Task: inverse folding
């Protein structure tokens, strides 16, 4: 991407910058240009020497704002504490940037460093012109340019104006790794001071002049419709000003939040329709039944049939439940809709889609909509969906004033886009020495069509029209999948069955199949997406193969692993002292899994007595390529492990009569501090480009803890969550 | 009309007496550092001190707080200099940060009561929930803050 000098007044003003200085940016993509957008600001150096970085990635706890600043600052040679990061509003119809898939640092690694290098070169050049000295004698360091021979110095602030008149250098060289002083170091995060003194502003904290508060009432059954409500009773409550329609429900709007909530209590809404029969237990049976007949092939490598002929076959079935993301900050959005434009403040991972959805809902062109991405109290994939923003925008439009709409925790738990429940059958054909020569995975689960986010559903709808028939039940036959937009194929296969080989091990033949078990429960992205269930299936199964052949789980994996995996595996065995004997009632289990470019191995040590499980220590080794901020990677591993452990032990969304049974943290409990195991993380010296860190720590924890439970108790649980199925003797 | 003493200042607020303190702080006084997470007293994101006792403000009607000294995260220190805040930065505790005001208010109350808490005492006191999994660092930071608070001149290294 070409870096541009945007130091002209109109750009500075459009970027909300007071005063002058050097502003670099880049040109939006061709699609953005078509939509009327031109350029995006990126880094500004003010005449006071302050550096502002404009980012579009959202900060939801993963430390991305600091990470991007670190990349720019590395090349810019600037004092770390002088960098400020601002989320740039999405306006003028530009394409939006999503935050997810552990992609931010991976994609911005080079562009951000190049922007820093360009600014530095321009500042050096400005100094050399000022001093009439050759540029080679001038060097940037710590926010100043120093003239070597004379030791003269000029701060960036003093140079910014002059630099802003220079062209952007054509060729830029990035520092070699050994000269870096920020990349690879655990610098303190820029966003944390505001998070310890109450000044950090999340979506929930947005305040707009004249704003009212709204709370929604949504059909408890997915797809249900409002039949009646006592609007008059709600309006009679103090402070309640309006009751307005939103998709599949109503919103109560009042002067203050608590008044709106009280109004909602009086509303007595009645809903009807939707799939009122849906029941998790019944769905579990349907998924398992779907495994009885062959599925649609998703992936095949080698001749699996042949591998199974005459071989010793081991097979097992597994199942995982629906899960909600349960971000600590419930869904919320503030919107201000006027006649020809609309401003939205949203904690969102997908501002572009959110903007498009809001535009459609309120009937305005996308150019008229501005989305401010706020800080987020967690995202975990849930905030890709724009449903809550549509509600806020419609409420604001209906009442003609800005509205902040806030979900209750119960709304958040019962109206998520869930990690799909699915079941899987794994089969392996073992050769004489116990190694698998063929492996097949058959996943049964929902086809996300009905649960798809609107924009994806529209694509599927168009495609079905074109094909003159439903894509279901044939999943995505090859003939069709070649015609699907790649994102859709990835979305569909990726969300439920995964698109590639079931395991990353060197097994000569592997196959993956999918069977539909239809369900109207909305499904979506949940930290690590399909890897969260696929790692559980395959890494438990590999453990079973080790047991079936009397092998040590570590040695068994080691024999099948690639060199890259082996390195991570060996490090985990060493870190956890794998062969150290444990007393009775305690067990150790491991899992190895690669996702988002990163390979993670985890070893769990736990104690189990009766139906209790106490996870004591998790050892975690990671190869995520080059590391930007080691402490941030460790924090992400700790967080991913605890996120996945909560799910493995007790996470479960169940439905009855079409309604989600859980509502709040008492019945959808999170792991607490007292239960949190000790976590030891080791980052392996990585080569190659940086890889994902926000998600890859989650997939291995469920199988590692399940395998450890087997080691401790001899009980092989094959259905999550573990705590419930350990109590139910019939399970497993 | 309610009268509340928050962070050493007296406020008069036009809100129904049954309005939970959490929403009076957030909506009426603009003290949005105190967070809403569950509304049922389980998550602890809304923790404030009432006369020094860590309390879940979503469960306390504001009308019952006449004469009670309320302290929120905004009132902990004017410049993030409280040893717990400093320890939170030193250990890089927050991720999304949404639960952290509650965590910090619970931790400061714990350390006031018990300047050198053992791990099991931390376990019992710190029942706040964190979805981002900051627990290992919360524990570490409490030990660090405890060490700082015991230093003779209360003047920890930056
Ligand atoms: S919001 Fe008060 S305890 Fe959760
Ligand atoms: S830091 Fe995100 S919930 Fe605790």
Result:
């Amino acid at each position: 991407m070409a870096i541009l000098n945007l130091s002209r007044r109109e750009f500075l003003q459009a970027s909300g910058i007071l005063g002058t200085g050097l502003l670099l940016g880049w040109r939006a993509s061709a699609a953005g240009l078509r939509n009327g957008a031109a350029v995006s600001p990126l880094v500004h150096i003010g005449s006071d020497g302050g550096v502002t970085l404009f980012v579009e990635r959202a900060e939801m706890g993963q430390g991305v704002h600091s990470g991007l600043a670190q990349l720019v600052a590395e090349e810019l040679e600037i004092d770390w504490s002088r960098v400020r990061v601002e989320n740039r509003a999405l306006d003028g119809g530009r394409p939006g940037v999503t935050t997810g898939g552990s992609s931010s640092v991976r994609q911005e690694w080079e562009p951000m460093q190049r922007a820093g290098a360009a600014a530095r070169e321009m500042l050096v050049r400005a100094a050399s012109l000022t001093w009439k000295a050759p540029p080679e004698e001038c060097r940037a360091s710590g926010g100043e340019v120093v003239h070597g021979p004379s030791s003269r110095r000029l701060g960036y602030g003093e140079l910014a104006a002059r630099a802003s008149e220079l062209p952007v250098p054509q060729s830029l060289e990035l520092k070699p790794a050994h000269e870096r002083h920020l990349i690879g170091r655990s610098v303190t995060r820029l966003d944390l001071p505001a998070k310890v003194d109450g000044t950090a502003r999340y979506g929930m904290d947005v305040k707009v002049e004249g704003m009212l508060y709204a709370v929604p009432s949504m059909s408890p059954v997915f797809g249900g419709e409002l039949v009646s409500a006592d609007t008059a009773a709600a309006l009679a409550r103090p402070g309640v000003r309006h009751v307005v329609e939103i998709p599949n429900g109503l919103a109560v709007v009042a002067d203050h939040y608590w008044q709106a909530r009280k109004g909602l209590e009086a509303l007595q809404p009645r809903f009807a329709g939707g799939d009122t029969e849906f029941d998790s237990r019944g769905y579990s049976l349907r998924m398992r039944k779907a495994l009885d007949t062959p599925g649609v092939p998703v992936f095949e490598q080698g001749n699996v049939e042949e591998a199974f002929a005459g071989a010793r076959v081991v097979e097992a079935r597994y199942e995982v439940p629906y899960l909600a993301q349960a971000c600590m900050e419930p869904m919320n959005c503030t919107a201000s809709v006027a006649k020809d434009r609309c401003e939205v403040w949203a904690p969102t991972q997908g501002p572009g889609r959110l903007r498009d959805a809001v535009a459609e809902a309120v009937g305005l062109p996308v150019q008229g909509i501005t989305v401010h991405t706020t800080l987020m109290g967690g995202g975990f994939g849930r905030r890709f969906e724009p449903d809550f923003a549509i509600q806020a925008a419609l409420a604001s439009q209906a009442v003609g004033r800005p509205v902040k709409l806030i979900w209750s925790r119960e709304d958040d738990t019962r109206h998520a886009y869930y990690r799909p429940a699915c079941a899987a059958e794994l089969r392996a054909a073992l050769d004489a020495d116990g190694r698998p020569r063929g492996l097949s995975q058959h996943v049964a689960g929902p086809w996300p069509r009905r649960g798809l986010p609107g924009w994806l559903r529209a694509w599927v709808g168009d495609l079905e029209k074109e094909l003159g028939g439903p894509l279901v039940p044939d999943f995505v036959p090859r003939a069709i999948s070649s015609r699907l937009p790649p994102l859709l194929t990835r979305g569909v296969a990726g969300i439920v069955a995964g698109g590639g080989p079931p395991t990353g091990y060197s097994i000569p033949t592997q196959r993956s199949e999918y069977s539909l078990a239809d369900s109207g429960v909305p499904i979506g992205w949940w930290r690590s997406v399909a890897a969260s269930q696929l790692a559980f299936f395959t890494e438990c199964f590999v453990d079973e193969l080790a047991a079936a052949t009397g092998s040590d789980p570590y040695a068994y994996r080691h024999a099948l692993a690639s060199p890259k995996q082996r390195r991570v595996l060996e490090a985990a065995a060493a870190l956890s002292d794998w062969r150290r004997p444990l007393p009775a009632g305690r067990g150790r289990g491991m899992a190895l899994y690669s996702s988002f470019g990163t390979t993670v191995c985890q070893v769990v040590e736990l104690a189990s007595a009766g139906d209790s499980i106490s996870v004591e220590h998790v050892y975690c080794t990671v190869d995520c390529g080059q590391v930007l901020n080691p402490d941030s990677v460790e924090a992400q591993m700790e967080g991913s492990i605890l996120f996945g452990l909560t799910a493995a032990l007790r996470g479960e969304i169940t439905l009855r009569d079409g309604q989600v049974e859980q509502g709040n943290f008492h019945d959808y409990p999170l792991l607490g501090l007292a239960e949190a195991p000790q976590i030891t993380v080791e980052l392996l010296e990585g080569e190659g480009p940086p890889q994902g860190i926000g998600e890859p720590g989650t997939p291995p924890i469920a199988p590692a803890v399940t395998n450890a439970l087997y080691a401790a108790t001899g009980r092989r649980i094959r259905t999550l969550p573990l705590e419930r199925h350990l109590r139910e003797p019939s399970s497993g | 009309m309610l009268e509340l003493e928050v962070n050493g200042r007296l406020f008069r607020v036009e809100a129904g007496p049954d309005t939970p303190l959490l929403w009076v702080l957030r909506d009426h006084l603009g003290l949005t550092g105190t967070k809403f997470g569950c509304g049922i007293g389980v998550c602890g994101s809304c923790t404030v001190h009432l006369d020094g006792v860590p309390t879940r403000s979503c469960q306390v009607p504001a009308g019952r707080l006449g004469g009670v000294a309320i302290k929120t995260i905004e009132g902990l220190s004017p410049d993030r200099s409280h040893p717990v805040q400093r320890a939170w930065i030193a250990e890089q505790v927050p991720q999304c940060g949404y639960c952290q005001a509650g965590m910090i208010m619970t931790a400061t109350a714990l350390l006031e009561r018990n300047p050198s808490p053992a791990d099991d005492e931390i376990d019992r006191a710190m029942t706040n929930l964190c979805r981002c999994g900051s627990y290992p660092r919360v524990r570490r930071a409490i030990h660090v803050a405890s060490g700082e608070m015991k230093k003779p001149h209360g003047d920890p290294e930056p």
Observations:
- Chain B has a mean pLDDT of 95.
- Chain B touches chain A through 59 residues (CB under 8 Å).
